[in-house]
Design a protein that fits this description.
mainly alpha, 3 helices, transmembrane, transmembrane helix, membrane
């Protein structure tokens, strides 16, 4: 938890438009998938898929961070 501001400012300095686009797209896709699952299924399977989607987003963010 130490140095989050430093990490954040470094991310902002090293940021590229393509990286921003990729992150925004991944967020939008995750939100749409979650909304569709919640609206249409509302059962245990959707919760499992939601957890998988969250894990995938976290892995993608960690990979993007380096």
């Amino acid at each position: 938890m130490i140095g989050w501001r430093i990490v954040f400012t470094e991310m902002l300095e090293n940021i590229t438009p393509w990286a921003v686009v990729k992150v925004l797209l991944s967020i939008v896709v995750a939100v749409v998938v979650v909304m569709v699952l919640v609206l249409y299924f509302m059962n245990i399977a959707s919760i499992i898929l939601l957890l998988i989607a969250v894990a995938a987003v976290l892995l993608a963010r960690r990979r993007w961070r380096g």
